[in-house]
Hints:
Radius of gyration: 23 Å
Strand content: 15-25%
Order of helices and strands: EHEHEHEHEHEHEHEHEHEEEEEEEHEE
Helix content: 25-40%
Number of strands: 18
Distance between the termini: 41 Å
CATH class of the largest domain: Alpha Beta
CATH superfamily of the largest domain: Alanine racemase
CATH topology of the largest domain: TIM Barrel
Number of helices: 10
Oligomer: single chain
Amino acid sequence: MNCPRIEVDLHKIRHNTQTIVERLKRRGIRVTAVTKATCGHPAIAQAMLDGGAAGLAEARLSNVKRLRQAGVTCPITLIRTPMLSQVNDVVQVCDASYNTEMSVIAALAAAALRQNTVHGIILMVEMGDLREGIMPQDLGDLARRVVDMPGVALKGIGANFACLSGIAPAAAKMRALSVLANDVGGQCGPFIETVSGGNSANLPWATGGHATGRINDLRIGEAILLGVDPVTGDQIGGMYRDAFTLVAEVIETDAKSVHPVVGNADHTLARIRRVPDISKITRIILAIGHQDTDAAGLSMPAGTTLIGATSDHLVIGTCDATPCVGSEMRFRMNYSALMRAMAAPDIQINRRNDRPATNAHKVHGPGKHLTLV
Length: 373
């Protein structure tokens, strides 16, 4: 097989999606599956839909176009505020978009009128993450302006947590979002169909016994793809952590001593790192590097440690039996490593279990986990 490559087990994606969908359904919350980490890969998106996701969410228009060109017809929402330069395409391929700027909404409305359609608008509210969002005190006025604007329809409001600031959503914040939804509904009428409470970081709140209020949607990507809570990194009970495996080829093995580097490297050259004497460790060099993935986000195989990486080399060490040149090594990835690897042009994507499996409830083996009930 070609290297480097990512092996994707679509059964595990379906299983993880179905697990979250079933748990959130009991709380009156639907799942919008986020495909941005996989660059809108159509087969992965379909596995999410097969698992019960109500629709898809994307941050990049090129990924939405990839999905549409592959024949995906479900509702797709653009979750990054649209660029003014892309409003015509956004209206053409997206059912709705998350927005914070009135000038962008006006441009979307004009584009929708030109295309004889209506584009859905979900207003993003700033609830503490300090990334994108309308200040809560300004939400009502903006919502009224959207309601009165031909070409667009106010579909709901949303918020984001634990992305820029890394702060997990608290029950008080979620109650405040529900209050905002009620306030907007009181001012504008019954237009608030969607109250999107956040992302995978919201799962402990959503399944923890708190009243969900008006929250009826979560945008879930990382938990489905990697089976973990993005805040703690803990495995979610009953879900797979290894739906994705990065495979790289060994191009050199080296038992020579490594001594501390003396002197400084020119800043225009590859960075030289000071490392301890590891003369008893065999170094293994693999044909993959920073251009392909986030080396710090790779889980090293048992018996190995990460020494470092450059643009196109990954160097690891081992005291165990040394693999031969041409052999393969397998790595599990965190979200950062997965995003970069899926976008790397030189990494091949190999799919397994394309067809939905009959046993969709097999639970992944032992491991540290967070149980969602």
